[in-house]
Specification:
Helices cover 22% and strands 34% of the residues. The chain is of the alpha+beta class. The protein folds into two domains: 239 residues, P-loop containing nucleotide triphosphate hydrolases (Rossmann fold), CATH 3.40.50.300; 117 residues, no CATH class. The strands form four sheets. A six-stranded mixed sheet has the order 6-7-8-3-9-10, with helices on both faces. α3 packs across α4. The chain is elongated and about 75 Å long. The chain binds adenosine-5'-diphosphate (ADP) and magnesium ion.
Length: 371
C-alpha cells in the first residue's frame, strides 16, 4: 500500500494567544510513501512530524489537500476505517489487563462481517506476539515488563488487525540507550517480515538513518528533502539538511567563491570553473572530508582524540561558524603520525565539501577541475 499526500496542509489556531493567527504545522506536502517501505519523518521538535502522522491516520483532518492509500482517497474516512496501526511514545497499555488481553483488545471491537471467533482471535494474538517475540509473556501484566517489552506489546497490538499501514510516533523515546538501539533493529526486522508500509517519526537522525529505506527531512512544516538516507547525506540540498544529518556534525565555515576558487579566509581550498561568480557562501565539510597532508586549509591544532581505528583532529579556524568553535575531522590513525607543532594543514575531499548561498542557504553545485 503506497501513501500519497497531495498538497496536504494543516493549520492550527496559534496556541500562543498573544501572537494570535495560525500555525502552519504542515505546509503543502506533496509526496509519496512507497509501498512496503520503512520511511522516516525526521526533523526537530515542532516541525510537524506528529501532525503529518495524525493526518495519515485520520486523527486530524487536513485544512487542505488529500490523502490516498494506493488509489483510494481516504481523506474523509474516519480513523477506525483506514486500517492503520498506531504506536506512540507512551505505550498506553491497559495496566489491569494481561499482555494477551491488551493485544486482543482491538479485535474485540470488530463488528459485522469483520467479527472474529474466540479461536481466530487467540490465533491472531499468538501470531502478533510471536512476530515481536513476546510469546512467552502473554499472561503477564504490563507492570511486570521492561520498557522495551511494553513497547513490543504496543507494536503487537498495532499489528494484530493486520493494518494496511503502520504508523510509529517516536516509539523509542521512552527507552534507555541500549534498549533504543535494540528495539530499532526489532522495528526494522518486523517491518521487513510483514512488508507493511511503515512511517516512523523521530527527531533522532541517527535512528532514522540507520533503519529507514527513505527519510523525509522536515523543518517548520516544510518538507526539505526526501531520499535514501545515504543519498541525502551525500547530497544535501540545503544547509539545514547538511547540518541535521551526521555525527559528528558537518563543519560549517564562512567562505567565498571568486575567480574559479573557493576560499576559506585567505586559503584557496578548491578550484573549479563553476566558481567564477564572486559571492559569499557557507562551506560545509563532513568530518571525513579532511586530509591532514599539508594542503591549503590552515587550522590551529588543538588536540588529537583517539577513537579506536580512527582519530579525531580537533582544530580551530577564524572562519569556522560552529558554536563550540572546534572543527572535528576524522582521519585514520596513520595520517597523524607526522603532525606536530600548533598548525595543521588540510586538503579537502571535493565530494565531502558542500557550498551554500549565504542568504538562501540553498546548495550551490560545482564540479572540481571543471574548466
Ligand atoms: P513534531 O511532532 O514535529 O514535534 P507537531 O506536529 O506536534 O510537531 O507540531 C507542529 C506545530 O503545530 C507546532 O508548532 C505545534 O505547536 C503545532 N500544533 C500541533 N498540534 C496542535 C494543536 N492541536 N493546536 C495548536 N497547535 C498545534
Ligand atoms: Mg511529535
Amino acid at each position: 500500500m503506497k501513501i500519497v499526500l497531495k498538497n496536504l496542509t494543516k493549520k492550527f489556531p496559534n496556541m500562543d494567544k498573544k501572537q494570535g493567527g495560525e500555525v502552519i504545522a504542515v505546509n503543502d506536502f506533496d509526496f509519496e510513501i512507497p509501498d512496503g517501505k520503512l520511511v522516516g519523518l525526521l526533523g526537530p521538535s515542532g516541525c510537524g512530524k506528529s501532525t503529518t502522522l495524525n493526518l495519515i491516520s485520520g486523527l486530524e483532518k487536513p485544512t487542505e489537500g488529500r490523502i490516498f492509500f494506493d488509489d483510494e482517497d481516504v481523506t474523509d474516512l474516519p480513523a477506525q476505517e483506514r486500517g492503520v496501526g498506531l504506536v506512540f511514545q507512551s505505550y498506553a497499555l491497559y495496566p489491569h489487563m494481561t499482555v494477551e488481553a491488551n493485544i486482543r483488545f482491538p479485535l474485540e471491537n470488530l463488528r459485522g462481517d469483520a467479527k472474529l471467533s474466540k479461536e481466530e482471535m487467540a490465533k491472531r494474538v499468538r501470531e502478533a506476539a510471536a512476530l515481536v517475540q513476546i510469546d512467552g509473556l502473554l499472561l503477564r501484566k504490563p507492570s511486570e515488563l521492561s520498557g522495551g517489552q511494553q513497547q513490543r506489546v504496543a507494536i503487537a497490538r498495532a499489528l494484530v488487525k493486520t493494518p494496511r499501514v503502520l504508523l510509529l510516533d517516536e516509539p523509542l523515546s521512552n527507552l534507555d540507550a541500549r534498549l533504543r538501539l535494540q528495539t530499532r533493529e526489532e522495528i526494522r526486522r518486523i517491518q521487513k517480515e510483514t512488508n507493511i508500509t511503515t512511517v516512523f517519526v523521530t527527531h533522532d537522525q541517527d535512528e532514522a538513518m540507520s533503519i529507514c529505506d527513505m527519510i523525509v527531512v522536515m523543518k517548520d512544516g516544510e518538507m526539505m528533502q526526501m531520499g535514501r538516507p545515504q543519498d541525502v547525506y551525500d547530497d544535501p540540498a540545503s544547509l539545514f539538511v547538511a547540518k541535521f544529518l551526521g555525527t559528528p556534525p558537518i563543519n560549517v565555515f564562512e567562505g567565498k567563491t571568486s575567480g574559479g576558487k573557493l576560499f576559506i579566509g585567505q586559503d584557496p581550498v578548491l578550484s573549479s570553473g563553476d566558481l567564477n561568480t564572486e559571492r559569499d557562501v557557507f562551506v560545509a565539510i563532513r568530518p571525513e572530508g579532511f586530509r591532514p597532508d599539508g594542503g591549503p586549509l590552515s587550522c590551529k591544532l588543538e588536540r588529537i582524540e583517539v577513537m579506536g581505528r580512527d582519530v579525531s583532529i580537533v582544530s580551530k579556524n577564524p572562519a569556522f561558524t560552529g558554536e563550540t568553535g572546534l572543527i572535528r575531522s576524522i582521519v585514520d590513525a596513520d595520517s597523524v603520525r607526522d603532525l606536530h607543532g600548533d598548525e595543521v594543514r588540510f586538503s579537502l575531499k571535493p565530494h565531502k565539501v558542500f557550498i551554500f548561498d549565504k542568504n538562501t542557504q540553498e546548495r550551490i553545485r560545482f564540479e572540481v577541475g571543471n574548466g
